[in-house]
Write a structure and sequence with these properties.
single chain; Alpha/beta knot; 2 domains; two-stranded antiparallel ribbon; 11 helices
Length: about 250
């Protein structure tokens, strides 16, 4: 998969994109990441990529000419990709959207700055707008890194364990169950005995129930959406643990 990033601050991205899973994916040619400096396509002697908004108002707006020229340059090198503008006005990023993007061959991530980008560039060249949350960053670079990380780990062969991505938190609308590792006893607290039983079916049941409990405690909004997706076996388990009616009442609110 190819990621192209359009930014005016390329140095913000270099180090994080050369560590851990992403570094290994790049070395294995599972992903190719290119960073394009929008300033290189500015036409004035000061390499200006922003200007004051027409009509007055606060802040600056990213100019359309350097953005369009940078995008054209990227599309000349690689097959045209899906252009994603990182913006607080975009649809909120989710695991479902990460899976959607992982099916693309080429993503072009445009890092917005200041008060945003000129509307003429956005309307003519942008295929999608994404926001990683209802808060404001100084620019889209951090959001671009979040998207690259979350999409890369979904690509076949990137993670060492094929089931890791399938069973992540948000692989369905449930938070992941509590996790334990060695030592068996830590500061007087033991791990749940069921995890030592060797009964994998019982362990899976335990983990499912704990996952539902954690979601109910921390993100009940997710359970409202997940309620209709429980299988008959899962519903039976939830009734056994007196959770089914609680979640049903939550869904009906």
């Amino acid at each position: 998969m190819i990621f192209d990033i359009l930014t005016i601050f390329p140095d913000l991205l270099e180090s994080p994109l050369n560590e851990a899973i992403i570094r290994r994916a790049r070395e294995a040619d599972q992903v190719h990441i290119e960073i394009t400096n929008i300033r290189d396509f500015a036409t004035d002697r000061h390499s200006m990529t922003d200007d004051r908004p027409f009509g007055g108002g606060e802040g600056m707006v990213m100019k359309p000419e350097p953005l369009s020229a940078a995008l054209a340059s990227v599309n000349q090198k690689n097959e045209s990709g899906r252009v994603v503008l990182l913006s607080p006005q975009g649809r909120q990023y989710t695991q479902e959207i990460a899976r959607e993007l992982s099916r693309e061959k080429h993503l072009i991530l445009v890092c917005g700055r200041y008060e945003g980008v000129d509307e003429r560039f956005r309307s003519a060249s942008v295929d999608d707008e994404l926001s990683i949350g209802d808060y404001i960053l100084t620019g889209g670079e951090l959001a671009a890194m979040v998207i690259i990380d979350s999409v890369t780990r979904l690509l076949p062969g990137v993670l060492g364990c094929a089931d890791s991505a399938k069973k992540d938190t948000f692989s369905r609308r449930l938070l992941k169950h509590p996790q334990y590792t060695r030592p068996r006893v830590f500061e007087g607290r033991e791990i749940p005995e069921i995890l030592l039983s060797g009964d994998h079916a019982k362990i899976e049941e335990y983990r499912f129930v704990e996952s539902v409990k954690r979601t109910l405690d921390r993100r009940p909004d997710l359970l409202r959406k997940e309620f209709g997706s429980f299988s008959r076996i899962e519903a039976k388990l939830l009734r056994k643990h007196q959770l089914y009616d609680i979640i049903k009442a939550l869904q009906e609110q």
